[in-house]
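Side project, low priority. Logging it here so it doesn't get lost.
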Amino acid sequence: MATEFTLPARTSKPHSLKRIGAWVFTAFAALLCFWLFVLPVVVVALSSVASHWSGTIFPDGFSMRWFQRLGGSDFDALTTSLEVGFGVAVLGTVLGLWLALALEGRDRRGVGAWVDTIAMMPNGVPSVVLGLSVLIAYHKRPLDISGSAAIVVLVQLALVLPFCYRCAAAALRPELTILREAAASLGAPPSMVLSRVVMPQLVPAIRASLALGFALSLGELGATLTVYPPGFATVPIVVVGQVNRGYYLPASALSLILLAVSLAALLLIAAKVPRRRMA
C-alpha cells in the first residue's frame, strides 16, 4: 500500500510578527521625528501668540502683542537676513557649479583631489573657528573688510560652498559626459554645449543648491556672531540677544516670521517654471 504524506500547513505567524515589527518601528520613527522637529516649531508658534506662558502645558492666553511690538530694527534684521541669504545662495551655487565643472573628469589622486579636499574643508572646521580665521585674515589693509557686511557674506559663503559644490558634482553623471561629447562631435561650440546640453540637465541640482545655501545662510549663527560688524544684525543675532535678556516670547514672534518668509522663499525656488511650447 502506498503511504500518503501530507505537508504541514504553513503558519502566518512569522509574517504577522514582521508586519507588527515594521509598524512599531515606523510609529517609533514618526514619534521621534515629531518630538525632535515638529514639536519645537509648534512650541515656538504657540509662544509667539501667548500672552503669558509659565509652568503650564498651554499658554494662559493668546495675544498678537508680540508681533505688534516688533520694531523697525527687527524688520531691518529680517531684510538683512534675506539679502545675505539670497546673495550667499547665488554666489555659492555659481562657484560650486563652476568648481564641479572644472573638476569633472580630473584624476582624483592628483591636483583634483587637493582641490576637492580644500573645497570640502569648511565642513570639518567649527564655524566659530572659521569665523575667527576670516576675521583675523581680513581685518587689516589692503583687504580690510571687517567693518562691512562683506565679511559676513564671505564667511557664510565659505560654509555654504561645500554643500553647493556637492549638489553640482552629484548631478554630473557619466551620461551627461556622453551627451556633451556627442554634441561636440556634431560640431556644437562649447558655449552651446554648456547652455543647451549641460545646464538643462543641471536645473534640479541648481535648485537644490540655491535652496540649501539659502536655508543654511538664514540659520547660520556661530561664524556670523564672530565676525559681524557694529550696526549689522541678522534675525539669529537679534533672537539670541532677546533670549539672553529673557525675552522668549518676542523672540518666538520674530522667529516665526523668519520661518514663514524662508518657507515662502524656498517654495519659490522649488516652483517649476512652465516651459514654452514651440509654435
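Brief comment: The mean pLDDT is 84.
Revisit when time allows.
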